[in-house]
Design brief:
The complex is a heterodimer. Chain A is an all-alpha fold. Helices cover 73% and strands 0% of the residues of chain A. In chain A, helix 1 packs antiparallel against helix 2 and helix 2 packs antiparallel against helix 3. By secondary structure, chain B is mainly alpha-helical. Chain B has one domain: Helix Hairpins, CATH 1.10.287. Chain B is built from three helices and no strands. Chain B is 76% helix and 0% strand.
Chain lengths: 166, 103
């Protein structure tokens, strides 16, 4: 347990709790940015530099901005006056706590987790590029196709219906 | 507690927070934020197992996370487009008011 890990974990968890508990949606999305940044720091701690920077680019640069745009377009930036929690929220919290109990018990009791820490692995961008172009070239093409389809689909779903406009 | 268990517990906590957010809040955008938190918790698990597991030189966990980030981006784009379309129809993003299957 290095102090860097503890600080990053604390920042990530606190901002995640803030992201789901603020009443104002704009504050929620800004806390979410801090959570994503904390996770990027954790990836750097784990020697996964490429994934850390991809996290910054994709999540902070694109997903958070998309969420802010959605808040803008649905006019939900004001702090709501009515209740923000669903009627059965106590049951929801209970379900979440049970899930955490099961996961935590499995993690702490597991025999499969080895005690020794292996040496830090090397994952240069060159190695990742080699793997993407040789071993993982088919998944890469499929992901490209999926992203194109998702982009076209998102535009069509959000496009104004002509019949509705008349 | 080993370092791997620390990362796994952090990821489990993050997943729990995301789950609680997704099922207790009324706003559709907040539910999407909860889902993003859960996806990120899964990614952290992959990276932690890649770093502390055997054979890290195979890069399998790393590749899984790279593809998972791409899929999460597609999911966020389609999900937010759906929320915008639903807002145009119901004039609301309250999940409790979306109780009508007929358009």
């Amino acid at each position: 347990m290095s102090p860097v890990f503890l600080i990053l974990a604390l920042v990530t968890l606190l901002s995640a709790v803030a992201a789901i508990s603020f009443r104002n949606l704009v504050h929620c999305s800004l806390s979410l940015v801090v959570t994503f940044a904390g996770l990027a720091g954790l990836y750097l701690q784990l020697h996964a530099q490429f994934v850390g920077f991809a996290q910054v680019l994709v999540y902070i640069g694109a997903v958070a901005i998309l969420i802010v745009f959605a808040i803008l377009l649905t006019r939900s930036a004001d702090t709501p006056n009515h209740a923000v929690l669903a009627p059965g929220w106590l049951v929801g919290i209970a379900v979440a706590v049970v899930v955490f109990g099961a996961l935590g018990l499995a993690i702490l009791k597991s025999e499969a987790i080895s005690k020794k820490v292996p040496a830090a692995p090397e994952a240069t961008v060159k190695q990742i590029g080699d793997a993407l172009m040789n071993q993982y070239v088919l998944p890469l093409e499929v992901i490209g196709l999926l992203l194109t389809a998702a982009m076209i689909g998102a535009v069509i779903i959000a496009m104004r219906d002509d019949k509705e406009a008349k | 507690m080993t370092e791997l268990q620390g990362y796994l517990l952090l990821s489990a906590l993050l997943f729990t927070i995301g789950l609680a957010g997704a099922i207790t809040r009324r706003n559709a955008i907040l539910a999407l934020i909860g889902i993003e938190l859960m996806l990120n918790a899964a990614n952290l698990n992959f990276i932690a197992f890649w770093r502390f597991g055997p054979n890290p030189e195979a890069l399998t966990g790393l590749m899984f996370v790279i593809f998972s980030i791409a899929i999460a981006a597609a999911e966020a784009a389609v999900g937010l487009a759906l929320i915008i379309a639903i807002y145009r129809h119901y004039k609301s993003v309250n999940l409790d008011e979306m109780n009508n299957l007929k358009g």
